[in-house]
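#structure-requests
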Amino acid sequence: MSLESVRAHLAQIADDIEIIVTQEISATVEDAAKAHQVESAQIAKTLSFRIKDEVLLLVTRGDMRLDNTKAKAQFGAKLSMLKMDEVVALTGHPVGGICPFGLKTPLPVYCDISLQAFDVVIPAAGAINAALRITPTRLAEITAAQWVDVCQAPRTA
């Protein structure tokens, strides 16, 4: 059903975007990178947060982490990750297939500037084996996302 809501949403606003369904499960950044033969950083992961009484989605590079100091400065308060059941109830998407398209509940979307390092990124498409290829600019445009700088690169060992 979630994949179908993404298909229906994209058919209305961006019917030229093809959803790629793979045999492999791509529910983690690493699995998605392997399935789509790209580096992990190119996977556009969608994270869901609560800030005070608002829920928002943040799309960022697969290898980035939330920087709590930057996020608090950007949003005016500390962000808290939603629980899995809340994510599914609000987005309509299964964990591992969450994306900013075809949402059950309209939610504000933010894109971290880290995505701009790539010509094309690969977000999930409402299922644990579905994704699409899109430019970061177009991703922000069709989701009405605001660009923010709230992430940091992962620590290297």
